Amino acid sequence: MTIEINNRPYDLPDDARISLLDFMRERLEFFGSKKGCNQGACGACTVLVDGERILSCLALAAQYDGRSVTTIEGVANGDELHPLQALFVEHEGMQCGYCTPGQIMSGIALKSELERGAPSNVSSDLTVAPRLSRDEIKERLSGNLCRCGAHNGIIDAVAAYVGGEEQ
Amino acid sequence: MSVHRATPHDAARLHVSGAARYTDDIPVPAGTLHLAFGLSTIAKGRMTDVDLNAVRAAPGVVAVLEADDLPHDNDVSPSAHDEPLLSAGEICYLGQPVFLVVATSHLAARKAARLGQITYAAETPLLTIDDALAADSRFEDGPRIYIKGDAEAAIAQATHTVTGQIEIGGQEHFYLEGQVALAVPQEGGDMVVHASSQHPTEIQHKVAEALGQPMNSVRVEVRRMGGGFGGKESQGNALCVACAVVAARLGRACKMRYDRDDDMIVTGKRHDFRIAYDVGFDGEGRIAGIIFEQFVRCGWAQDLSLPVADRAMLHADNAYHLQHARITSHRLKTNTQSNTAFRGFGGPQGMVGIERVVDHIAHHLGRDPLEVRRANFYAPADATSAASGDGHQPAQAPPAQDDLATRGAAPKGGGVSTVPATAQTTPYGMEVTDFILHDMVAALETSSDYRARRASVAAWNEANPVLKRGIALTPVKFGISFTLTHLNQAGALVHVYQDGSIHLNHGGTEMGQGLFTKVAQVAAAAFDVPLDHVKITATDTGKVPNTSATAASSGTDLNGMAVKIACDTIKDRIAACIAERYQAASDQVIFTDGHVEVGAERIAFKDAVQLAYMSRVSLSATGFYATPEVTWDRIKGQGRPFYYFAYGAAATEVVIDTLTGENRILRTDILHDCGKSLNPDLDIGQIEGGYVQGAGWLTMEELIWDDTGALKTHAPATYKIPCASDRPEIFNVSLWDGANAAETIYRSKAVGEPPLMLGISAFLALSDAVASCGTDYPNLQAPATAEQILSAVDRVRW
Ligand code: FES
Ligand code: FES
């Protein structure tokens, strides 16, 4: 039973009840993913599993046997920031920063969701690929809470990343 | 110069990499124990039997503590010593900590905490403002009253009058990082506490008290918080004290983190208010006399409620010159969470009161509310003389008591400043000399196209029976300073190392507001070196002592000034050394562009530092700053509690669905005054965030308790804060370009709290939309949730 996190294999915990978030934070000391609510409602713990975003507080580590997890610590290329990380710096997409790792992981995933044509609640037509728009981006980021209200910078950074219309 | 420039957040790169370390991310020493509270399940009564055998027997449990087990003071209050860490028998609210579980893991502690078998003799709790009024359950001996002129007589003689009342709900902080603490025992009984706290000195004080040790045996460190908003001014005391007491007892590191539901159930929130008003005015809407009665639900313990309620009174005028006013404040004690500081600290509630009145007057007269606002504005700055400053009596020291460093400390007296008889004054006798809202509001009226949009909103409402629009433009005038005068002080510690790098420490804490960046800018500007020469380190009670809370928007004003003073001390020493070497006068030595110049000589800053070091000159200094001129008597309600005012204005347009009550913000335009901004990007971030939080408070964030006193909205699934999709579709924010008339750090103004009150425009825009449905005044209550809007629509229609 192994799980890959940021391209390195780890043995899964014996206790099948431990969440992926607790496994990463408490056993492996990957502190980048945050625990904002531990109940799937804030997005601070968002990570990618084989490129798809999930809430790691709602996932059991054991569910992801053999899968590949990417956390905020794994998106940069050495010293070179991932493009979305750089855009968050450029657009000041943060205040306290506690939501930032989750926002970035969501931003990375939502770009591929849009590219593959997955519709959202605000897509006007479910049969064709959604149009890139700020509304689509806002909707797809609304599961990542930001209490500081840094939404403007966050949305700008993600919009620049997915190449949607600039306001 | 590094100031007045947009420079990114000091830790931006760390944040985007997930490497920024919060308290919960500190790797803990091996053997660290984890704590959880067992909570009361009734709101009022006594515990008659406490059976914790199942708790003790639960897997992983190392110890269980009750009130009797605490070796010293059982208190975590920041004011009146009325807040036991663990109940000694009496239950005052539902969710009160009654026992403390110590276990080998966080989960084990939490699971065990549920197993307590407690038998209660329950009593009927006082939950609401009405309950407390009926029982005359209050803090202080009676209501506080501020009086200016004769409001009754003025109202009696006025052409028009209206009366009304508004309920204003509370607000959960929902800092994304919950409360958390880690205590690590040291040799000789010393304790190091890592806290997520806006007030490290208060933590130090309460921990020392609980350990029966002097303050010098406790060191508190705060690197950063994942949001504070006032919720970490006093509400972290319990976790830190619990961790320290157990760590001292068992000799092992202890950590405690509230789970989100516990966090919301245990900790206090923004005070909910009821404000009743009675106002007389003329045909233009000019207020002749006004009577406010503010009812404040404080919860079970005093905490910071008195200064919060004071600040609500101090903002009952907002931007309006009230000639005759009486403001009465009832501080009611209820069996609910102990309400506490929240961004604005009572100011927002007071301001909602007067803005509601102005809106009601305008509706009564059928006038544009903006015109009524203007008719009541204070006279502009250029029409008033600057306060002479003479006649100010020095503030008296507060009476000796052991909790001096908190806003809960309550001095009995204070100086009263005298102002010229002809001056325009607030209801508490402070002269207003810096009023700039005439120009700001005119500028925003133009840039937001308010007039034309008001007309088009009316046209839209004429044509559309279901979707109704509304627009409102509201001003903010917010007083800056701690109203407890002696808290307006700060210290800083600056070291310059031999290689020219600068190490900086100050008493303020970083919670996302960008304080560390701004203060580093101040240091870099003082030496005129690049910002990356300056390193700011975690707030540490061992480096800068006796700090005030990072609160009251004062962080940059106070700490920036202290840092500048420390830097200037070191500069003077370096200059004297260089001057001597080059046989020049000290004042001919100039620090510029990473260099030190004297006459024709120009040497790199680093080389100048080395010369100073070689000449045995001290390159380390402390700085200390105390805000001048403030003096305040909170009992009389007279004086100059504020050093200056910060101003802002916002125009918000909304749309409501009259069939469902659903609503959205369509457009927001803001013009805000940060004086000469130290960092425009950070300031704009604070303004946007403050607006969103203020609009959230008044439109969607709803706290609901059931009849037993249980908070039913204790998780993000039931308590809705604004999210990305709630962001206004058009959101324009600009800074008002002007220097602070008061001598603040580089003439900037504080920006933490004032923008929150810009959100009042969203509430009144909703009221405007509802008003278009009929002829009656909407009498909208806050928060204006879909249900509230729907019932208001029904009221005005039928
Ligand atoms: S911590 Fe996982 S969604 Fe909040
Ligand atoms: S930056 Fe603080 S929660 Fe988003």
TrEMBL record, chain A:
SUPFAM superfamilies: 2Fe-2S ferredoxin-like, CO dehydrogenase ISP C-domain like
Gene3D superfamilies in UniProt: 3.10.20.30, [2Fe-2S]-binding domain
Transcription found in the keyword field: no
Protein name: (2Fe-2S)-binding protein
Top-level taxon in the UniProt lineage: Bacteria
This protein's UniProt keywords: 2Fe-2S, Iron, Iron-sulfur, Metal-binding, Oxidoreductase
Any GO MF annotation of the entry: oxidoreductase activity, acting on the aldehyde or oxo group of donors
A Pfam family per the record: Fer2_2
PROSITE patterns assigned to the protein according to its UniProt record, in alphabetical order: 2FE2S_FER_1, 2FE2S_FER_2
InterPro entries on file: 2Fe-2S-bd, 2Fe-2S-bd_dom_sf, 2Fe-2S_ferredoxin-like_sf, 2Fe-2S_ferredoxin-type, 2Fe2S_fd_BS, Aldehyde_Oxdr_Iron-Sulfur, Beta-grasp_dom_sf
Domain 2Fe-2S ferredoxin-type: 1-75
CDD domains listed in its UniProt record: fer2
From TrEMBL, chain B:
SUPFAM superfamilies, per database record: CO dehydrogenase molybdoprotein N-domain-like, Molybdenum cofactor-binding domain
Function per UniProt: Oxidizes aldehydes to the corresponding carboxylic acids with a preference for aromatic aldehydes. It might play a role in the detoxification of aldehydes to avoid cell damage.
InterPro entries named among the record's database cross-references: Ald_Oxase/Xan_DH_a/b (IPR000674), Ald_Oxase/Xan_DH_a/b_sf (IPR036856), Ald_Oxase/xanthine_DH-like (IPR016208), AldOxase/xan_DH_MoCoBD1 (IPR008274), AldOxase/xan_DH_MoCoBD2 (IPR046867), AldOxase/xan_DH_Mopterin-bd_sf (IPR037165), Xanthine_DH_Mopterin-bd_su (IPR014309)
Residues covered by the Aldehyde oxidase/xanthine dehydrogenase a/b hammerhead domain: 17-124
A single MF term (Gene Ontology): molybdenum ion binding
Listed cofactors: Mo-molybdopterin cytosine dinucleotide
Region annotation Disordered: where it falls in the sequence: 383-422
Any one cellular-component term (Gene Ontology): periplasmic space
Assigned protein family: Belongs to the xanthine dehydrogenase family.
The reaction(s) this protein catalyses: an aldehyde + A + H2O = a carboxylate + AH2 + H(+)
Source organism (scientific name): Litoreibacter roseus
Keyword S-adenosyl-L-methionine: no
Annotated EC: 1.2.99.6
PANTHER family noted in UniProt: ALDEHYDE OXIDASE 1-RELATED (PTHR11908:SF132), XANTHINE DEHYDROGENASE (PTHR11908)
Keywords: Metal-binding, Molybdenum, Oxidoreductase, Periplasm
Subcellular location: Periplasm
Name under which the protein is recorded: Aldehyde oxidoreductase molybdenum-binding subunit PaoC
Quaternary structure, from the entry: Heterotrimer composed of PaoA, PaoB and PaoC.
